[in-house]
Design goal:
Organism: Bacillus mojavensis
Radius of gyration: 17 Å
InterPro entries: vWA_TerF_C, VWF_A, vWFA_dom_sf
CATH topology: Rossmann fold
Structural class: alpha/beta
Protein name: YcbR
Number of strands: 6
Number of domains: 1
Shape: globular
Oligomer: single chain
């Protein structure tokens, strides 16, 4: 518990610096579980990633829970993790879970569509969603129309590339055209074990404040009853799943 307490202190400092202390947001974590990630799961690196992002959820999230997905050429929506049960989460919910598909090839679009389905359709809210998306290279270019179609939704994608894989497409996220707002950012961390908590949280939240300001100005993020947006959400997913 001592480690996560230190991480919570680090994220508090960053939130104060970026004037985000009064912001409430839902936090999700999408984890690459393709074959090239096997070692990082086995040696505890992914468990540490979960713990570090959980500290963000603890300070940021509307309910203190971190929603988690894993994906390779299939995907699974996992049990959310909290401060009371984060210890051994990766072993318990992922590595020792025989029902999960693991260590295959990468296919990002299906899991991204499920993330959007959860936050836009299943659980609409006046709170924005902040999604940390871990990838170790080779992300499919077919995520482009999904990001573009979701640019008028209160969901921000923070992609994190770890290791030395091919991140050519993710590096071009800021240049995507045809979006209502810039709803995605990419951060490359060669060795995620070596970056400090302060550096990690500062980098993760670099563009989120600017996006938050813009979606409020454009009326994308407003306090309203969830039912008010139902017709628009239906049209959005009809377009999205036809891609």
């Amino acid at each position: 518990m001592a480690t996560i307490d230190l991480q919570k202190k680090s994220i508090k400092i960053v939130l104060e610096k970026k004037q985000l202390t009064k912001v409430t947001a839902r936090v999700g974590l999408v984890l690459d579980i393709t074959g090239s990630m096997r070692t990082l799961y086995k040696n505890g690196t992914v468990q540490k990633v979960v713990e570090r992002i959980l500290a963000v959820a603890d300070q940021f999230d509307d309910n203190g829970l971190l929603d988690v997905w894993v994906y390779d050429n299939e995907f699974s929506r996992l049990k959310p993790v909290s401060e009371s049960d984060f210890s051994g989460y990766v072993d318990r919910e992922i590595l020792n879970n025989e029902l999960l598909h693991k260590f295959g090839r990468n296919d990002e679009p299906p899991v991204m569509k499920d993330v959007l389905h959860k936050y836009v359709v299943e659980e609409p809210s006046s709170y924005p969603a902040f999604i940390v998306f871990i990838n170790d290279g080779g992300c499919k270019k077919t995520i482009k129309p999904i990001i573009e179609a979701a640019s008028d939704k209160p969901v921000f994608w923070q992609f994190v590339g770890i290791g030395n894989g091919n991140f050519d497409f993710l590096n071009k996220l800021d240049t995507l055209e045809g979006r209502v707002v810039d709803n995605a950012n990419f951060l490359h961390i060669e060795d995620i074990e070596r970056i400090s908590d302060d550096e990690l949280y500062d980098a993760l939240l670099t563009e989120f404040p600017f996006w938050l300001k813009e979606v409020k100005e454009k009326g994308i993020l407003i306090e309203q009853e969830p039912a008010a947006a139902k017709p628009e959400r239906k049209g959005f997913f009809s377009r999205l799943f036809s891609k």
